[in-house]
Amino acid sequence: MTILIQFAIGLVFGLGLIVSGMSNPAKVLNFLDVGGIPAGTWDASLAFVMAGAVAVTFIGFSRVLKLARPVFADRFYVPTRKDIDPRIIAGPAIFGIGWGLVGFCPGPALTALGFGSVSAFIFVAAMCAGMMIARFIAQLPSSTRIVTPSDPLET
Amino acid sequence: MVATPFTPIASLLGGALIGLSAVLLMWTTGRIAGVSGIAARLFPPYEDRQFAGRLAFVAGLVVAPILVRLVTGSLPAQTIAAATPLLIVAGLLTGFGAVWGSGCTSGHGVCGLSRLSVRSLVATITFMATGMATVLLMRHWS
Predict the structure, then answer these.
(1) What are the angstrom distances between the C-alpha of B84 and each of A118, A122, A124, B137?
(2) Considering only residues 23 to 62 of chain B, which have any Cβ-Cβ distance to chain A shorter than 8 Å?
């Protein structure tokens, strides 16, 4: 039951990516290309994707998180960290470079698989490798680290 | 470079669907709809028993365009200009950076900003900045 629901929720996410235009890397790159503003080639659409997504999520989260617990889980798994460590800058900095090179971030790249695109398959395979490398490095013991290394996925 | 039309209404609607998905996932499973976190946890080491649910979510992402094609008979434009070596480098950087920074456009940019998380705000500003800088270098200085 919950599996089917999570499939449906993923489907809604994917439809959102397609309807919004985020599944098209050219559109993403034209948004990131602020150098195209003078020439008129800048595509501001993605700011509207963010606005629509954040507006709905902000209102929805504020209501849902007031509930005692989720429908199918024992509690809400919401990140609690507030510290600004080097990783929260280095990770997104590296991510942004990859995003800017092709125009794919993880969601649209996975959705692009359903377009039957070979390029998307190559990108997703490399992306998964990158994810595994990051998790592997994060778990290596370090002489400079005093506390136990934490899983970077745990925000 | 391929010109793309400005689509404020469709983008706002699509964004709202993404937000709806994030709210539904939180309401039902209590989890953040961060695609990189969900995808990365499909690989070992496994910390919990949510594998099937995560795989179902990713399957939904992949099936969405197939459903659109079945219903409407066509798919919107998708232009991927990058050659294979660039796809590999970009994929590696995107995957590595998303995990290293605890999230991507969805986890930080949508869910994190909606929770008013300072870490997510720092992350979002950073990847927007390096993303824009990368496109600027690729298109205007090469």
Answers:
(1) 10, 7, 12, 19
(2) 23-33, 35-37, 39-41, 43, 45, 47, 52-54, 56-62
